[in-house]
Structure formats: structure tokens, C-alpha cells
Amino acid sequence: MADSLKFIVDQNVGRLVKWLRIMGYDTIFFNGSNDSRMIATALAEGRVILTRDTQIMRRRVVTKGLLKAILIQSDDPEQQMLQVIEMLNLDCNFRPFALCLECNEYLVERSKEQVKNRVPPYVFKTQSQYMQCPSCCRIYWRGTHWQAMTKRLEHFMEC
Ligand SMILES: [Zn+2]
């Protein structure tokens, strides 16, 4: 079940976008004020709404269970993540390294040769596995930044 979860994140809880993408969950950010448009997108694409807006929770599509929406309780991004992970039983190791954190596009594997001269020399020396976003062309590798983020995710799981 959790495998097919997709999200649309309201701008009032925008910090959740990056974390969900790190975990590999298809997540889009709704950067607008028109609730009806967000709801229409969620329905059309089968996305769960994450929001702090109680008005959305009162919409008929939500109260009738046609659309799943989660009212985020806390102001604190870590607490927000914990709430989503707990309520939906998310797997923090679901599909790490699968999505571009900027574009939400699936990353494509690249060989070491393909990224030569496109990553810093010390990275090229130490990393053997690379992924690239087909949209923004950003190259990803499991460097220290990545490791720090996954550590934090593991910390969420232990809470
Ligand atoms: Zn990208």
C-alpha cells in the first residue's frame, strides 16, 4: 500500500517536500492559494494532501473519504515528518536515491565515465555510483550530505 503513496504538499508545510522525496515518495509542492486547484490535482493524480489548513479538512471530498488529507499538527518540521511517518506507516528506506530533490523526477543511473569532469575530482575518486536527473541534469551521489540526510531519517524511524 505505502508503495503507491503520492503526495501533494501545501505551502504551509513545504519542508515536508524534501524529506518525502529523499525517502522516494512522489511528492509535489502546491505553491498557490487556490485550495480547489490543489484538491483537483490531488484527486486527478491520486495524491494525499498534507496541510495545516483546517478548511481543507472540512471539504466534502475529504469528510466523505473520497480524498485523503492529513492535517499536520506541529510547526516543527521534524515533528511534522514524524506525524506523517506514523500516520501512514511510511518506510524511510522505501526508495532512497530515486527522485530528484528539486524536480521530483526519477533519477537515471550514470556510469563513472559519464559524469567525469561534471563532479568534483575528490568525488570522482571516492564515489562509484551516480544518478542524474533527466530534467535539471543535476548529478547525485551518496556523499556526506546524502549520508547526513539518511541518518536523520533513520533517527525519525527510531522515535
Ligand atoms: Zn532535477
Account of the 3D structure:
This protein has 159 residues and is α/β, with parallel strands linked by helices. The protein contains eight helices and seven strands; from the N terminus they run E-H-E-H-E-H-H-E-H-E-H-H-E-E-H. The chain has helices spanning 16-23, 35-45, 54-57, 60-63, 77-88, 112-115, 121-126, 144-158; strands at 7-10, 27-30, 48-51, 69-71, 108-110, 130-132, 139-141. The strands form two sheets. A four-stranded parallel beta sheet has the order 2-1-3-4, with helices on both faces. Helix 1 (16-23) links the parallel strand 1 and strand 2. The two termini are 22 Å apart. Residues 100, 102-103, 105, 133, 135-136, 138 line the site of zinc ion (ZN).
Q: How would you summarize what this structure contains?
A:
It contains 8 helices and 7 strands. The chain has 159 residues and is of the alpha/beta class.
Mean pLDDT: 91
Major sheet description: 4 strands, parallel
Number of H/I helices? 8
Gap between N and C termini: 22 Å
Low-confidence stretches: none
Order of helices and strands: EHEHEHHEHEHHEEH
Instruction: Report the count of strand segments.
Output: 7
The percent of residues in helical segments reads 40-55%
Structural class: alpha/beta
